[in-house]
Design goal:
Oligomer: single chain
Shape: elongated
Structural class: alpha/beta
Distance between the termini: 59 Å
Strand content: 25-35%
Number of helices: 9
Order of helices and strands: EHEHEHEHEHEHEEHHEEEH
Amino acid sequence: MAKTKKQYAVIGMGRFGSSVAHELSELGFDVLAIDADEQKIQEVSNWVTHAVAANSTDEEAMRSLGLRNFDVVIVAIGEDIQASILTTLILKELGVPELIVKAQNALHGKVLDKIGANKVVFPERDMGLRVAHHLISPNILEYIELSNDYGIVEMKAPSFTIGKNLMQLDIRARYKCNVLAIKRGPDDVNVAPYAEDVIMNGDLLVIVGKTEDLSELELSYAEG
């Protein structure tokens, strides 16, 4: 019988791993939680599909869990970089189809990428970016780094933009950034808005651009 929904395994029940496992469970997916710490497994066992205490650097233990049959495995191991790398190697050899691994720093991320992680994530760094951009301007709700040179910000429309259209704001010419969307609610998103579209109170602007150009925009809008 064909699987009706994706199955996920999350290794490492620290703050990041348990948060990912909890959110996936809330969304209705089957989640296997794995950690060497029995207490952590007990804490998450009530809200994941399965919870197992196991050492992720033990190849036979990982093989016995049938991880190659899961659609995605997330390695969310905390401070132990060696365990993170060894776990990733074992899972690749077991044939896990999609492997997402948390990295502590850029060098760790490069190693994970070299040994076959399909995606490397930097939760602490990404959170630091979001906090820093929010400190620059309280209007900044979200910051996503697309690459070393480009990013996307989601920001509350500042009061001085209300009632003006995109042509009047001239964000592209002034800041070399593009407005990708205007959000007025969860079900009201104006994708690729026109120059004549007017900004209204409560609107959220989704803007893409080079990192330095976005920073200039943020500072200018914060001062406005």
